[in-house]
Amino acid sequence: GDSVTQMEGPVTLSEEAFLTINCTYTATGYPSLFWYVQYPGEGLQLLLKATKADDKGSNKGFEATYRKETTSFHLEKGSVQVSDSAVYFCALITQGGSEKLVFGKGTKLTVNP
Amino acid sequence: NAGVTQTPKFQVLKTGQSMTLQCAQDMNHNSMYWYRQDPGMGLRLIYYSASEGTTDKGEVPNGYNVSRLNKREFSLRLESAAPSQTSVYFCASTKTGVRLNQPQHFGDGTRLSIL
Q1: B112 at the A interface (CB within 8 A)?
Q2: Which residues have CB under 8 Å from B8's CB, separation 6+?
Q3: Would you place residue A17 in the very low, low, confident or very high pLDDT band (cuts 50, 70, 90)?
């Protein structure tokens, strides 16, 4: 079945450091890919998405590129801030499939001043 | 902007008790979902409703029932709570369904403990 694998956390960085959170996927169809963010005590929010190969999703300084050849969708940010501390989830949905959005297990990021 | 509202925010139950988690959205969305979030497991889909009047099982439906009361409301019921159902429960909605790349809008969650 479809699955998403994220790098295990927690990840701890200093402010202004470069961030990469790895995400790879397995899908039977041709998926759309998403990154969601969960701030403490809140529900998940869509951060960015990409719906076809080589698409780049971006939002709030975060970027991720849909790489079909490596089945990856790594999240990057050039300079993190304390306010970026949160749990990040990679997710996919297979086009034409069911309504089941498949999530990775989440990666907790802590940014220290 | 209310978005997705879940009640209650916290609840403690004894094994065998029943309860209903409430969810309402004010965005005129067609599709609604219930997830549970457990440490190290990410989010797992319990049930979803693609439109008013329909419900379908997700990945982990056992021990739960749902009701799509109307377009706005989608409730989750635990008939006989078990300690394994201790979790954080999230309700979400989308306008036309995730298959069409619509983002899900999440509530703030219900933290449920079963003793």
Answers
A1: no
A2: B21, B110
A3: very high
CB proximity under 8 Å: B 73-102 to A: 90, 92, 97-99, 101
Q: How distant, in Å, are the alpha carbons of A41, A65, B75 from that of B21? A: 18, 37, 6
Average model confidence (pLDDT) for chain A? 91
Contact criterion met (CB < 8 Å) for A93 and B101: yes
Tokens of residue B55, six digits: 């419900």
Lookup: tokens for B39: 């440490």
* Both structure tokens of B88: 């954080």
| β pairing state of A44-50 and A56-59 | unpaired
**Could you give the CA distance from residue B49 to residue A18 in angstroms, rounded to a whole number?**
40
Interface of A with B (CB under 8 A): 32, 34, 36, 41-46, 49, 51, 89, 93, 95-101, 103-106
* pLDDT tens-place string over residues A45-94: 999 999 889 999 999 999 999 999 999 999 999 999 999 999 999 999 87
Residues B3-6: contacts with CB under 8 Å, at least 24 apart: B3/B27, B3/B105, B3/B107, B4/A43, B4/B91, B4/B92, B4/B93, B4/B105, B4/B106, B4/B107, B5/B107, B6/B89, B6/B90, B6/B91, B6/B107, B6/B108, B6/B109, B6/B110
- Tell whether B5 is within 8 A of chain A (Cβ): no
